[in-house]
Design a protein that fits this description.
By secondary structure, the protein is α/β, with parallel strands linked by helices. The chain has 2 domains: 46 residues; 180 residues, Pectate Lyase C-like (3 Solenoid). 22% of the residues lie in helices and 39% in strands. It has 2 helices and 14 strands, in the order αβαβββββββββββββ. The strands form 2 sheets. Strands 1, 2, 3, 5, 6, 8, 9, 11, 12, 13 and 14 form an 11-stranded parallel beta sheet that branches.
Amino acid sequence: MGLEQQISSLVQASENLTGAVNNKIGEIDKKVDNSVKEITETITKNNIVKFYIDSEFGIDLNSGSSSAPLKTINEAFRRCPTGSTASIYLKRYQRHVFNGASWCYALSLSIMAWGSNLDYSKSYHYDSSTPILEFNGELNTNGSIIIGGYRNTLIIESNKDSKIYFYGAGQFTLGRSRIVLDRNGSAFCGFDQNYLNPVKFSIREGDVVKTSGYLARHSIIFSVDSATGFTY
């Protein structure tokens, strides 16, 4: 074999090798893309969760679906996956009690009535069916909390042992709902280190009924739109 033939053979072998490598890289890239897609879909599916609470007939060993509700909101807080978007629905005509101390690792947590307001004439409405969340415990979180919503009114009672601590930036929103404060002069939301991180307390068409105490500590940013009973 002459020199030219040897060079031609080497060039051809190099081209063949390059083609094989490119094909292999393409296969690897495709597998990586598919794996990323599967992981993303799994994370998204697992991190959007809903829990239904029936304080009378629910069981904390249930799945938490509307057909197999939990009994306590404590259990729903415990089950929220880290970084999730979680919704908790409280059965109407019932009082739901949160007590003790609990962490909720959801990035976004919404608590609302199980079913819309019975009166649709305006965005919020209170009657005997409106669920009551009696807050007697300490909730620790790094995310945001929304209470109530459009035509989805709640009543939250913040009693003397209740508090919400934000360990990092976060937001508490009272949406078209009522909060009753009986705090023995202390604050319901925030603690003395919240000046290090932006924490916001928002009220949207909310009612504040105060016996004693405060909504939040002085280090928290307030945003108020159409509120009754609120003073700064």
